[in-house]
Every structure is written in structure tokens, then in C-alpha cells.
Amino acid sequence: MSTPTLLGYPLPLHISPVTWATLLVLSTQSDLILWFFLRKNLRIARARAYDLTLLSRNKPAEFWGTYVEEWQEPPALPEREGGLRLRFIDLASSRVGAIVLRQAIVFPLIALSPLLSLLVSAALRALSTAKTLHTPYFTQKHMSPAQVAVFMQERTWDYRSFGFVAALFERIPFVGILLSVSNRVGAAMWAFGTSPGGCASRRAVG
Fold it and tell me: What sign results for the dihedral spanned by CA atoms 153, 158, 164, 166?
């Protein structure tokens, strides 16, 4: 068997695609088992990480205010498209939806490229992960589902990129459970910057 090389240099460590796929499947199942037993504590830890991050900003409740549309002409979402979009995001953000997507789309890609399967999984769950991470912010602003859809559409690439990285971190075997807590810290910091009060603070500093 030939030794794999990179730019002509032999690689010190080589894992065959079959071995990598096996490890990925086993780690996924292990993560599901860990999540099942730790789901209550994880939910508390994630909420506490988000709340403590906002508390560290030392801002009063009035700082957050209520939702106010910033664009004079916000992007219009057709009713059907907006409804389907929200339903897909809600499905992908649920635990059952994630399993369905993984079984139907991601697992077949493992045979081709395990790394590609991770990237595709993160891309599919990008918006749903970002929405889940910012759900406390939407609740705090008393935003309706339609307002959430428009708000995310206005910042679609910000949400896609943030959600992609967060989903990719959470898919790292074993460590992903811990990173799902630290993702709440990043989401809270982004919520602080997204709030009109946070924008005003940045402009004042600038």
C-alpha cells in the first residue's frame, strides 16, 4: 500500500476513509448518549452562560428596548416563502430534525469524504443553529416569527457564517458538547452588538 503524501512529503499520520467514517459514526452516537443524560444540565449551563455574558455588560433592561425595524425598506418575504423558510429552520434546529438531516444527507457523504460530511452538516444547520442561539434575544425583544424572519433576512450572511462556525464547532466529537455552551457566550456578545443600544455605544466609542 502506498504511503499518502502531501506536496511530495509523506504524511506522519494517515487514517483511511473507512476508519475515519467509523470513528465519526461512533462519536456521533456517543454524543447522542451524552446529550441524553446531560440534556437538562446542558440546557441550564447554556442559559446561564448567555445570561451571565449579558449581565457582565452592566446594562439596564431599557438598553435592550423593543424591536424597531432599522431599514426604511426591509426585504419583503413572500408569505409562502417565509412560512416554508421558518418551518425548515425550525425543523433543522430540533434534535429530531438534525438526526433526519444527518441520516438522509450527511451519512451518505461520509463514504466520499468525512470532512465534506461535516462541512455539509454545518452548512445545512447554519441558519437553524444561529436562530437557536439568538432565540433569547428574539424573546427579549418580543419579536414575532415574521419579524424574526425579516431580521434574519436583513443579516442573512452574518447569520449564515456565524451559524456555520457554531454548528461546525458543535459537531466536533466529544468536545462539541462543551463548545455548545461557549457558543452561547458568542451569541450573547453578538446580541449586545446587534441591539440598537449596543450600536449606539460602538458609535460613541468610535
Answer: negative
pTM of the model: 0.71
Neighbours of 192 (CB within 10 A): 21
Burial of 151 (0-12, 13-18, 19+ CB in 10 A): buried
**181, part of any domain:** yes
Domain that holds residue 202: 52-61+78-206
In a domain, 182, yes or no: yes
- State the residue for C-alpha cell 456555520: 164
Closest by CA to 160, choosing from 134, 127, 133, 124, is 127
Establish if 126 belongs to a structural domain: yes
Sign of CA dihedral 130, 136, 137, 138: positive
Question: In this structure, is residue 7 part of a structural domain?
Answer: no
pLDDT digits (tens, 9 = 90+) for 63-94: 777 777 777 777 776 554 445 555 666 665 55
Q: How many domains does the chain have?
A: 1
